[in-house]
Structures are given as structure tokens and as C-alpha cells.
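User: Sequence recovery, please. Input:
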């Protein structure tokens, strides 16, 4: 088993366990995926974003562009085509996902 949820934790190939609520986003770079976590910082993983998305689809994670899967609750601001994440970084929102991301972000503000 590659990626799975165990309670409120995400387990990746039995090597990493991270609370889902602490994960800000995942970014793909080549064959690797980097997980950005509030508690653990950056962790490099050898799995696909598709695998991760299938596990976290019900946990508030959405593709913001082809290479980034983001936890909507960590978006602090949206300006034009950029989303500001809790760690202060800006991530580009693709045109075809912009409306969805803005709607999901607005839902978190209610």
C-alpha cells in the first residue's frame, strides 16, 4: 500500500505519518512530490499526486494547478491568479481551476 489514511493521519509507504490537518500542500517536481507541513516542514516523497489526491479528496485538498495539490484551509489570501499559503509562499492558480479555488476559499471564510 502506498498512500493511505489512518484516522486523522496520512501514512505514506509506512515511512511517514503526518496529521492531515498539518499538511499545507504537495508540489510535484519531476518524479518526486514534496509535502509541505506546518509541523514537519518539507518532506520529499516518491509517489504521485494522483495517489495522494485519491486519499485526500474528502479532506479539503484540491489541485490548484497541474503540479500542486493544496489544503484549502491553508490559503490565507487570493490575489489575481496567486494564492497565498500559510507559510507565506504564493502559488499560481491555473485559469481553469481559479473559479473552483476561489469558491472553496470563500466557503472557508464563512
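Assistant: Recovered sequence (110 residues):
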Amino acid at each position: 500500500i502506498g498512500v493511505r489514511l489512518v484516522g486523522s493521519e496520512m501514512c505514506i509507504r509506512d515511512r511517514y505519518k503526518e496529521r492531515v490537518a498539518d499538511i499545507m500542500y504537495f508540489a510535484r517536481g519531476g518524479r518526486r512530490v514534496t509535502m509541505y507541513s506546518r509541523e514537519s516542514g518539507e518532506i520529499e516523497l516518491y509517489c504521485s499526486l494522483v495517489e495522494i489526491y485519491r486519499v485526500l479528496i474528502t479532506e479539503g485538498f484540491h489541485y490548484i494547478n497541474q503540479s500542486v495539490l493544496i489544503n484549502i484551509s491553508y490559503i490565507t489570501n487570493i490575489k489575481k491568479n496567486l494564492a497565498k499559503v500559510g507559510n507565506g509562499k504564493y502559488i499560481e492558480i491555473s485559469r481553469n481551476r481559479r473559479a473552483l479555488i476561489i469558491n472553496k476559499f470563500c466557503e472557508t471564510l464563512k
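The mean pLDDT is 87.
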